[in-house]
Write the structure tokens for this entry.
Amino acid sequence: LHPCSMAYSDPRASAPLLPPEVSFPQRLLTWYDRHRRELPWRAAAGEVADPYHVWLSEIMLQQTTVATVRAYFEKFTTLWPTVRALADAPLDDVLTAWAGLGYYARARNLHKCAVEIAHNRQGQFPQDEADLLTLPGVGTYTAAAIASIAFDRRAVVVDGNVERVVSRWYAVDEPLPQAKPRIKALTDRITPAQRNRDFPQAMMDLGSGLCTPRSPSCLLCPVSEGCQAFIMGAATAFPKKAPKKPKPTRFGLAYWIENDRGEVLLTRRPDKGLLGGMMEVPGTDWRSDWRAQWPDPQAELSGTMLAGEVAHTFTHFHLRVRVVVPDCPADGAKTAVEAIKKGATWAPLEDLNRFALPTIMKKIARHALENR
């Protein structure tokens, strides 16, 4: 019999009589009932969550903080209150609304998944983890989270907060990311068969509110009994992490091409790859030195290099960009760009927010406007 599969009626009464591992979910859920966070995508106590809200929030929360996601979630649900409305929206509108949230493949998959749900599944999200995994942009964690939170299925949900709680509770010596399979297996051991909607959210709230990375509030923790890291007095030593590899720095040039109508030339990045499908200020590839040149020698996009540079950091590398204002006439520069880039279009300077520009491109535009 699974140690957490037995029914319980009064957690506060029964918890002290059970071994810590078995009583873990009871003590945690009692705490959660008193201290649960109110989040715009979370159903109120006793209510059923909207699968669309659960899915949308989980996609947005990948690699992104709750504080950042709040405003984006509220914007998306205002613009597109249902999955069908999101599916019917132009992809460019979705990318523009997503701009600044990062990891833009999520936005493209979000729209693709909305189309799949609305047009091929009668607007209904699948409830089974295996079926959820067939949806665009839905991985192992997201499928488990949707199955449990939206549909009350027992699932082993492990995000960064849960990894921290479990690695401390069991004092997992193996460093991340190698420890992920073991942490998931240990999470399975303490995941109950009841209150499937609440348990993963309780774990997330515990990790974000008490079992924090640098200053955990162990004395307030409802599951400190049995926590090996707490017993050792070494909570912040877990989870163990492998040494980070230093991030390389890449360099590139951006070409600020304005016409006499108050418009700037933008192009579209390839659909696949970094910032896929987003609009950009055209420029060179990002390489490991400043000697990156426009790849077509006939383009003749030499010009005045503006003072200063634009710095930005992606997940795997730092980027430094210099901005060049070409000497050739704007229409000639546009012709040269069109030979290499796709989707070249003139964008009114006063209406740049209408275009799906990622943060790095907004930085380049701001730098150009301030220094041209």
